[in-house]
Each structure stands twice: as structure tokens, then as C-alpha cells.
Amino acid sequence: MSGLASKPALRVTGLRKAYQDVVAVNGLDLEVRAGECFGLLGPNGAGKTTTVEICEGLTAPDSGEVELLGLHWASDEKQLRQRLGIQLQDTQLSEKLTVYETLRLFRSFFDQGPGADEAIALVQLEEKKNSRVGNLSGGQKQRLALACALVGDPDFLFLDEPTTGLDPQARRQLWELIEQFKSSGRTILLTTHYMDEAERLCERVAIMDNGKQIALGTARELIASICAEHMVAFSAGTNAGALDIPALRKINGIRDVRSENGTVEMQVTELHLAVPALLAELARQSIPLTELSTHSATLEDVFVSLTGRHLRDE
Amino acid sequence: MSETAAILGPQVAVGERKAPRGKRLAEHPLVQLTIVRFLETLREPEALFWIFAFPILLAAGLGIAFRNRPAEVLKIATITPELTQSLQREKLLAVQQLDMATAEEALRTGKVALLAVPGPNGAVVYRYDDTNPEGRAARMLADRAVQQAAGRVDPVSSTDVLMREPGSRYIDFLIPGLLGMNLMGSAIWGMGFTVVDARRKKLLKRLVATPMPKQYFLLSYVLSRILMLVAEVGIVLGFGAWIFHVPVRGSLLHLAVVCLLGSLTFSALGLLLASRAKTIEAASGLMNAVMLPMWIASGVFFSAQRFPDVVQPIIKALPLTAAIDALRANMLQGANLVQLAPQMAVLSAWLVVCFVLALKLFRWR
User: Is the four-CA dihedral B194, B200, B206, B211 of positive or negative sign?
Assistant: First the structure.
């Protein structure tokens, strides 16, 4: 382990990739340390999937370099394929095969790794072992896809939006499986547009937007970087037009104010001082509150503060 | 240590991964890919219908429709008892005596092929459609019966010897045609749809992301095709032999070689057609555009010789024509592979060209 830790598991330098008229990845540098779970975060179209597929050797970059486990795609493809576990975004596995048959097939491609039965146990699909893939729920299909990525006993695992489209319970179940895999000391590169997913699973996170990295660090560091611990949001309903926003900005402890469709969002450092002051100010402006909420700042708020947009905006 | 760690074991450092151990045959990727491919086909009821049931239904339907009837009896009508009596001497005619209006109606609607009415001075008038072969045949039979009833004696005596040999009937012509059509259809559809579907679902891309040797993927299609082929050919031939006594006069081994080469050629063509398409609709249009002309021109249902001489070289160069000609020559004339060299050459040429092009054009995503 210590020998691995000294060298990054993945090093990407100066990566560029353009499709016809869209620049998907625009000069990206990344370093994933051995044994960590690294999150690549960003809205749809940020270039996450293109980046990951270049790292997986499925897409050729226009320029830039990828060094994975100390190997290169051009010279060591065979060796790399044996050592990677890959889960692609929305692959549909053959619906007519059973869970067991699917895993037995994927296992046959690898020199080593758990058997089909063991892989089924890993992702807790024992009860569905002989069910057709077409009859699985979304969460079960994602777990099967994860098992297909694990049958080669990978040193490096790529997960491209593993929980997109799943219900909260299925997501939590998948997170637990990923956490178990993490505890075996292997490296993971995970893309997601769910901030809570990145906060829970990833040691370090890179935020991508328009093909570039706009922030890098642990979730805690990134949240600290916006110098606000709390987010306060209120709704002024029909009186939103009458609101004096510059006056709100002057309140002690309020750092940034953003107004959208009658909802006002603020970054706040000292909640206990800012909220009473805010209420007083709104009373002064005779604006009745229809809704008030606060939450601790998240990576979502980091993204909004960096780009002025929400992550989930299409 | 978590459950996962327990199953996967501790991570090994770079270069320490186990050397590939000897695998059992069942764990070989090619075997697994072939099994999976075969299972997928078996679990597709529609595909099984088109491959197995459809050619048999078609053969049965056409075999019955075009069966050689034992001496067909023609229906005719008269309006007088005298004429009815003389015409009843002819066993190949079924005579009905009707009133004039009903008789005319029956002739007009094709219920009878001919209407015989008395003319002036004991003459007979035959009313029939001379563009209808049944009408012309009825005219000859009816006239012979009328003349003989009136006392005509033929100057030359004649005897009939009947030939009803298996091998020269329509069903004998049809079964090799259907076999060829089936070889083409199942290979092109089997190859085309599944490859395009796997590409559309990004399953191809997922497979390329594993260490799977790519040639195994294509090879598994060929192997599962050969497995299906045995059943496919066996069922059509068996059905033809059992129900219609269609002969196989050539060597069965040579017939198997023709079927195998034909199936490989059409698989290569199917692979070529599926090499780029991203949607089932696009692939389907392409496949139909390629297959439809061959269904018509290559002599499945009727002899390709009926087309003008100018286009004969083109028709002869089509893979389905070559396959069907070879199957017919083997089954009906007992031709061996040496005699089938021209057809085998055409099939081989298509196989090589399609396969090389398909490999060049093939997209995994």
C-alpha cells in the first residue's frame, strides 16, 4: 500500500476533447491518489463523462496525457483492461439473461477475481440470482452493473453516475456497497451531479464546469472556501418585487444574496446574528414571510457560489 | 475487514497480479459469449417463430396451394338434358344442367369454366373465356365428348402413361428456395438486429471496456449461428421430406457445406449492414432494402430464368441466387461440390468482401 500511495493512481494532464462544435473537455488536469475515492462533480454537460471515458480508454483525447496505475493506454491496454472495473453511464445489460449468466459472462473476460456467485453476494443480489435482468428494478440493475465492474477484482474502479435515477433507498444501498469496496483500499473515480453523494463517498472532489476544473479539495475545504457555514432561504411570495435586496446585503453575517423566482437565498456566517437581523429588516420593509428555511452549506452551494447556477439546471 | 474486502482479498501491488490460471473450457470467454448468444436467441419467441415456424408454415401453405392435383375435374354447365347426357361421358368434366339465366351467371362468376348451349341445326355453341386455361381445356374435353357421343371414332388409338415423380413438382422446387431464404433471413436478422440493439443499449461499449478479445465477440455470433443452423436446416428439410417427400439426391455432407458457407456469407452481410447503424429502424430499413430484391429475383418462389437475359448475370451474382441454385442442384439433381464450384465461388467472394468491409467499418459505440 505504501508503495502505491507515493504515486498517483491516475494522473491526467492537459486533457482536451472537442466534438464537432462543442469543446467537452478544455485543458483538464487531475490527480487521483491511490486508495482514495475521488469525486468528479458537475452539472450535465460539464465534461465529466467524456473525461472518464478518456481515462477508461474508450475515447481518444485530442491532446493531453493519461497515466493510469503507472500505465498508458497506447502501450499497456491489455494489462490496464484486466485491472480496471468500469461502470458506464446507462448501459443496458442484456435483458434476456439472468443475473448469474451475466456475471459468469463478465467474469470469463478476466484472469482473476471473485466468481459469479461471490460477485452476486458482494452486491446483495442473492435472491435475484436466477431472475432475468429485464425483471430487475432500477436499483438492482445498478447493483448488477457494479458487480460486473467488480468481477475482475479491479485495482481502480470507475463509477459514472452510479445512482442517477434511483430512489433514495436504492441510492443509500448502493452507497453502502461502494463504501464497503472503499474499505478494501482500492481507488475509485466517481462522477455525480448529486452533491450529497460526493460529500458522503469522496475524500476529495473536483468540481467541473464547461470542460474545466473550477475547484478542488475535500468537501469540507470546498464548503469552507465560500466562507459561509449556513444557507438561509426565504420566500416573499407576491411581495418579492417590493424587496430591497441591497439592504439585505448590509446585514451583519450575511455574505451573499441571490434572488430567483420570489425565493431569496443567502450565504450566512453567523446564523444566530443574521436571522434576527433579517427578520427585523423584513419587518421594516413590511414584507410578510411565507417561508423560511436554513441548512448547513453543501457542495451544491459551493457550485452556486462559483458559477451562479444550480447543479441540476439542465 | 469488510465483507467486500474479505471476498476481494487484500489489494495486490502492481505487477503482483496472479498470472492467468488455466481455465476450464466453460469459463473461456468464447464459450461464454456463444452460450449467452444462443440463450438470447432461444429466449426470443418472435425470433424462433421466424426462424423455425415461418418457413414450415410457408412451405405447407404453398405446398398445398400448388399441389399437383390428381387429374383435375372441370366444372361446366349446359341447359338441355341431351347435351348433359353426351357430356357426362367425359370423366374429367362435372356437368350441371341449369336454366339459361343461372348458367350465364355461373359462367360470368367463374363457377363453371364453360357453358354449352344448343345452336341451330343440331350444332353446339361453347361459351367460355379463352384467356382462362381452364376454359380452353374444358372446350377441348367437351367437344371431344360431344363428337364421340355423335359417333366419331378416332383414327389413331392412344394410351396415357402418367409421370408423378418426386423432384419435379412445385414443392420440390420450393423447399430449396425456402431453405435459402431462411438461411439469408435468419443470418441477416440474427446478426443485424442483435448487434444494433447491443450498440443502441451501449452494451457493445460496455463489453469493449472489459478485457474481452474483440474477435471473440464476432466469432461467438458465428458459432451460435452454426448451432442454430443445424436445427434450422434440419427442420425445413425434415418437414419437406416427411410431408411432401421432397428428395435430397446429393450428398448430405455436401449439402451441409453449402448451408454452412451460405450462412457464413449472409452473416457477414448482416454484420456489414449492422456495422454502423445506431437505431433498429435504420438497420431494419437497410436490411429490407438488401433482402427484398433477392427474395424476388433470386428464385425463391419461381425460377430466376423468367427475368430478361440482360439482367441474368446480375441475378446470378447475387448471394441468394447462388445459395438457392446450389441447394436445388444438390437436392434435386444430386450435384456434388465440384459441380457447384461456380455458386460456391460467388458465395465465397461475398463472404470475403462483406467480412473485410464490416471489420473496417464496424463501430463498437
Answer: positive
Asked if B218 reaches chain A (Cβ–Cβ under 8 Å), the answer is no
CB neighbourhood size of A126 (10 A): 10
Q: What are phi and psi of A133, to 5 degrees?
A: -60, -35
Does the pLDDT at position B165 exceed 50?
Answer: yes
**Which of these ranges, B64-73, B133-142, B228-237, has the smallest mean pLDDT?**
B64-73
Q: Are residues B43 and A184, on separate chains, in Cβ contact within 8 Å?
A: no
> Is residue A6 over pLDDT 80?
no
What is d(CA A191, CA A31) in angstroms, rounded to the nearest whole number? 14
* Chain A contact set for B198 (CB, 8 A): 94
Q: Do B211 and A109 touch (CB under 8 A)?
A: yes
Q: How many CB atoms lie within 10 A of CB A3?
A: 9
pLDDT recorded at residue B2? 47
Question: Does the distance separating the beta carbons of B209 and A183 come in below 8 Å?
Answer: no
| Pairing relationship of beta strands A204-209 and A212-217 according to DSSP bridges | antiparallel
What is the interface size between A and B, counted as CB pairs within 8 Å? Answer: 124
A1/B40 touch (CB, cutoff 8 Å), yes or no: no
Query: How is residue A40 annotated by DSSP?
Result: E
Reading the block at residue A133, the C-alpha cell is 435482468
DSSP result, B302-343: S-GGGS-GGGHHHHHHSHHHHHHHHHHHHHHH---TTTTHHH
pLDDT category of residue B4 using cuts at 50, 70 and 90: low
> Tens digit of pLDDT for each residue in A204-244?
999 988 888 988 998 888 888 777 778 888 887 777 777 88
Note whether B40 contacts A94, CB cutoff 8 Å: yes
Going by C-alpha positions, the residue among B80, B148, B141 that lies closest to residue B113 is: B141
CB within 8 A of A231, min separation 6: which ones?
Answer: A265, A266, A267, A268, A294, A295, A296, A297, A298, A301
Model confidence at B349: pLDDT above 90: yes
Phi, psi of A296 (to 5 degrees): -65, 145
Distance CA B171, CA B192 (A): 30
Characterise B121 by phi-psi region: left (phi > 0), alpha (psi -120 to 50), beta (else).
left
d(CA B304, CA B294): 10
Q: Which member of B29, B201, B209 has the closest CB to residue A92?
A: B201
What band does B264 get if pLDDT is binned at 50, 70 and 90? very high
> pLDDT tens-digit profile of A264-279?
888 888 888 888 888 8
Give mean pLDDT, residues B54-67: 80
B8 lies within 8 A of chain A by CB: yes
Asked if residue A281 lies in contact with residue A247, where contact means CB atoms within 8 angstroms, the answer is: yes
Determine contact: B121 vs chain A, CB below 8 A: no
* A177 contact residues in B (CB cutoff 8 A): 4
Complex ipTM, two decimals?
0.82
Does residue A163 have a pLDDT over 70? Answer: yes
B131 in reach of chain A (CB within 8 A): no
